Amino acid sequence: MSEQTLSTPNSITLRQFDYFVSTVRLGSMSAAARKFGVTPSAMSQQIGALEVALGRKLFDPQSRRSSLTKFGREFFAQASTVVDHAYQALAIGQSFSDGVLTIGTTSTIAHKLMPPLIYRLRLQCDIDNIEVRSFATMYDLGAALDRGTVDLAIGPLTRSSAKFVHTVGEEELVVACHRSQESRFDGTWQRLAEVPWIGYCNSSDIAKTLVQESGRANVEIRYVVTAPDVPTALSLVEHGIGIALVPKMALHNCSRLLSVTRPAPRIRRKLSVHVKDMSPYIEKFMGVISDMELIRKFRAAGLLEVR
């Protein structure tokens, strides 16, 4: 099939593609114009210029740009893909890191495990320019690893495209409550369900675990606040707003106003390092995180559980 070249390099622009695709998706040119902060007439001129460059009508002339022609429908299918890919490329540019090592993990691990790990990386391996990114869900963390946005991922990942997986240990999930409430609970879900809870977004892995465990106990949890992450949930618990399911390591060096209740049965998750492609810097990181002396210190501090 022969390639068709545009009449001039500037005859068609990405902005014209974006205007056209948005007009179709939003159902009206006025709505699309509001999205881009331009007048409908200015948008109409750009789409008209696109039609001239294509040599075809995109909209039925009798429909006042509300109904696509047959060619317009075919062109929209291709143009929408072009626009979506362009925005994805821009997103990569915004999230791309020039750091030597980019580590993806959970907010809790970023707060509790990463500082001593990074200290050792800098001390023993002379690695600087490390970037740590936290993700709210394991789906987002795994997707970041798949895209190459992070060099390695640490967390309770169950699936990923990683070629190398190293299990560090286990984390335990416990119920954080205000110290004034600690005598109220005996670890049973029946007692835990009597008080208000701090929840997480539905896609959160901890939220899914909470639904699973409470469902298994045949109790209904009453949520009063939805927190974006574990640190926020703990702050809400500290203020006596409710109780929350959190990784036990999140309570390391926490406020004295917080107390812990272990639900029965105990909830544990495997923590692993996932790597797609090895590099000298990742190999150094793996050497540090595999060091048994450091692992023993993590366990002694209650940051990791013995498998």
TrEMBL record:
Keywords: DNA-binding, Transcription, Transcription regulation. Coiled coil: none annotated. Residues 12-69 form the HTH lysR-type domain. It holds the Pfam family HTH_1. The keyword Transcription applies. InterPro entries: LysR_HTH_N (IPR000847), LysR_subst-bd (IPR005119), WH-like_DNA-bd_sf (IPR036388), WH_DNA-bd_sf (IPR036390). GO terms for molecular function: DNA-binding transcription factor activity; transcription cis-regulatory region binding. Belongs to the LysR transcriptional regulatory family. PANTHER family: HTH-TYPE TRANSCRIPTIONAL REGULATOR, HTH-TYPE TRANSCRIPTIONAL REGULATOR CYSL. This is DNA-binding transcriptional LysR family regulator. It comes from Nocardia pseudobrasiliensis.
